[in-house]
Description:
With 332 residues, the chain is an alpha+beta fold.
Amino acid sequence: MAIHDLQIKPAITKPSRLDLILAEEIPAVLKKIDPKALSSKSKIRRLILAGAVSLNNRQERRPALLVFPGTKINVTLNIEKFLFEKTPDDVSFELTQENILFEDESILLVNKPARFPTEATIVVTRDNLHSAVKRYLNSKGTFRNQPYSGLLHRLDRDTSGVILFSKTRTVNASIHDSFLRKIVQKEYLAITTLPTNQKHPESNFSVKDHIARISPKGAPGKWGEVSNGGDEAHTDFALVDAGKTLLLIRAFPRTGRTHQIRVHLSGIGLPIIGDPLYGGKTDLSGKPVLRAMLHAASITIPHPVTGKPLTVSAPLPKDFTALASSAGLSIS
């Protein structure tokens, strides 16, 4: 395992971002070590977040930090780790009419597939739903400029189901206001494991707490309940059906925090199956479960133009219904 300790004195005359400086310096170093090795912005960012960079002998994990002339930069470059590029097991997806749940002149509601990012990541070549929406809108006609597509809320990569995009900036304020006033109603379905005591939860229950990120920088983002600070989080739940080993639960988030449903279910001993980050099993009877079994079933929102309530539902994907069926869970 080749590890190189690099000392860099950036040739800058004014403050410059750390990641941009390294994006200039690292490729030259790599060329001497391995002419075929390739750098990228995402690799540079990961290098900084991993704690491999120091400024004037102090560790620095902020890629966007401004570096001043005369600063000494030290980099511990593990070539094997730096060049490793994990290939995400994202599905291939192109938005077609089949996946359009509702569309008019101002908004577009889409049935998002599981295992597909909602928005762009630091890996610039990785496809995502927002880009797919832009391609879909662009295919509908000839435009002088790229058609507008506004992303107003998000679903986790593994979560399937309904998600809303705006088609014109003029409706963004109205939609944002609806979320802010908590009058948007969202319903999810989740398949969870039984608690260790094998007792079923009540038919209706709620979780209210404050949650915040609990994982360190550079590690996969994980959120959890905190006693101080954090953001208020509230989810109502309803038990739909119970099998021998799994439960089917409806979730009604009243706030929109990152990983909120996953955190709340895990916190009461009901982790979603296929969600190892929060304690969920990744196999059922020896068969792998490839994603967290969480589905955004419906959304109800005042239409941003007419003001009338609009409810849009997304059908359950095959992997969700197949797992529910194998566990003896009834979705009706």
